[in-house]
Specification:
The protein is of the alpha+beta class. 36% of the residues lie in helices and 12% in strands.
Length: 121
C-alpha cells in the first residue's frame, strides 16, 4: 500500500508521496526562498525575531480571542494573526492591537499578495 499526504502548499489538496514536499503543480515554486529573504534582508533578523517574542504571541492571541478565532474576511476558522498595515511598512504599529486581524491561510495569502502590490514589499 502506497501512503500519500497532501501537498504542503496552503489550500492545495493534491496527494503526493510522503517523500515529496509539493505536488507537480507547486513543485517549481521556491517557498524556502521566502524565509531566506525574510532573514537576510536589511532588518530581516529583527523582523523574524519579533514574531518569536512573548509580546507578539500575546497580542496575536488577544486579537484572535477578540475575533472569536474566525477569519474576519471569510468567516472560516482563523489560524493567523495578521498585521493590517504590514510591519515592513509601519514598524511602529507592530504591537497595536487595532492593527492585527485574524485570518485563515487562504485569506492571509491573498492579503499578502495585495500588500506586495500595494506597498511594493
Amino acid at each position: 500500500m502506497n501512503i500519500k499526504k497532501r501537498c504542503n502548499k496552503v489550500g492545495c489538496n493534491n496527494l503526493i508521496n510522503t517523500t515529496e514536499t509539493y505536488c507537480e503543480q507547486h513543485k517549481n515554486h521556491n517557498y524556502k526562498q521566502y524565509e531566506k529573504i525574510r532573514t537576510s534582508t536589511d532588518g530581516g533578523r529583527t523582523y523574524k525575531r519579533f514574531y518569536d517574542t512573548k509580546e507578539w504571541k500575546s497580542l496575536r492571541y488577544q486579537a484572535m480571542l477578540r475575533d472569536g478565532f474566525i477569519c474576519v474576511c471569510c468567516g472560516r476558522e482563523a489560524k493567523i494573526g495578521d498585521h493590517i498595515i504590514p510591519t515592513k511598512v509601519s514598524w511602529d504599529l507592530r504591537l497595536d492591537i487595532n492593527n492585527v486581524q485574524s485570518l485563515c491561510f487562504e485569506c492571509h495569502n491573498k492579503k499578502t499578495l495585495e500588500d506586495k502590490r500595494k506597498y511594493g514589499i
